[in-house]
Amino acid sequence: MNCSGQRTKVLARQIARVANGGGATNTARFFIKNPSVLLHLTIEIFARNPSDKGQAQTYTGETWTLTAQADRDGSAVPTNAILTAQSLPDSYEASTGVKMMRGSVALADVHEDGVIYEVQCTWEPGQPGMGQEELDRLFSECELTADAGNVTVNITGG
Prior knowledge:
The chain is mainly beta. The protein has one domain: Jelly Rolls (Sandwich), CATH 2.60.120. Strands 6-3-8-1-10 form a five-stranded mixed sheet. The chain has a five-stranded antiparallel sheet with strand order 5-4-7-2-9. A hairpin with a 2-residue loop joins strand 4 and strand 5.
């Protein structure tokens, strides 16, 4: 997504989709890179069923966690927990200096076929008066990826 000239960057990823009637338990994982404390980051995690237009999603005990990551020789190494077992839907406003975060969503006993789980990240300037050139550079370094290279995790069970 080219954000040149924009004051907000939004990335969204589908991290799981319930297939074959659901009823299974699985974990979907994702990675977020927040390149600078100069950016304000909001993370939202939710589920939706595209066939239930306008209907509120029913949750069955799904939770998510967020862990700080440390870069050691190019590989992400888990460090401290930021959030533990928060119920969905949920959001988190990152106000730390953590640049890399690993998240996971525990999908327990999901029964609705077609439900899609998504993570959405919104980055905005954390300070008034930030120049557009600096903002564009920082936005170019923002990342949100789902494990397995953004491939949807199909949950099958029964």
